[in-house]
Amino acid sequence: MLSLSVSKIVGAVSKERWSQVHSFEPFQEKLASHGALLLAVTLEDLERSAESELDLPSFGKEVLQRFHELYYGAEIGDSLFEHLRGTLRAIVDEFAEVRIEGIAVVILPTELPGKLGICYLAGVGSGSALALRQNQMYRLIEVTAFKERKGAYEIVSSSGFVLDGDVFFLGTGDFFRLVSL
């Protein structure tokens, strides 16, 4: 049975940047169809001026709420993987007044022998997801592409199985610039 335990390290909020680690484990029906969500996200005010009226903490809550609406509010269709990528793409497009860096992980429980779940990962901006499995560290996803011009970004994705004892580390680029794993 899949059981998540989440610990968070989050940077300080400033007028220009906001970071959050978000986790959500829905009730049984949505858990079976959409999985549990882990999200490490940083928003950066693109204006970066003293006159900027953008309240990043409130704006960040709006981004997380919208992610939930898009991801959990729609049917998966043919591919959970593409649904996750599409949700991340829609968030970046919809909230173009900020630069979004994030790693989204969805863990879908499975009944496969020896497996606790299937892990789907997608990232944009800058960041990484790593897994510690049997005392060995593995980089699951690394996003280094950055928004160079309006509308230009790359979503990097990966997937794999979750085994008993796996430990995941998610972080935006800022985290991994300070902490080397």
The proportion of residues forming helix, as a percent range, comes to 10-25%
Weakly predicted, low-confidence segments: none
Rg over CA atoms, rounded to whole Å, is 16 Å
Task: Give the number of helices.
Answer: 4
Walkthrough of the structure:
The protein is α+β, with helices and mostly antiparallel strands and 181 residues long. Helices cover 25% and strands 37% of the residues. The strands form 2 sheets. The chain has a 5-stranded antiparallel beta sheet with strand order 1-2-3-4-7, with helices on one face. The protein has a 3-stranded antiparallel beta sheet with strand order 6-5-8. The chain has 4 helices and 8 strands.
Keywords:
37% strand; globular; 181 residues; single chain; alpha+beta; three-stranded antiparallel sheet; five-stranded antiparallel sheet
Please describe the topology of this protein:
Elements: E1 17-24, H1 28-34, E2 36-45, H2 56-72, H3 80-94, E3 98-109, E4 117-124, E5 127-133, E6 136-143, E7 155-162, E8 167-172, H4 173-178
Antiparallel strand pairs: 1-2, 2-3, 3-4, 4-7, 5-6, 5-8
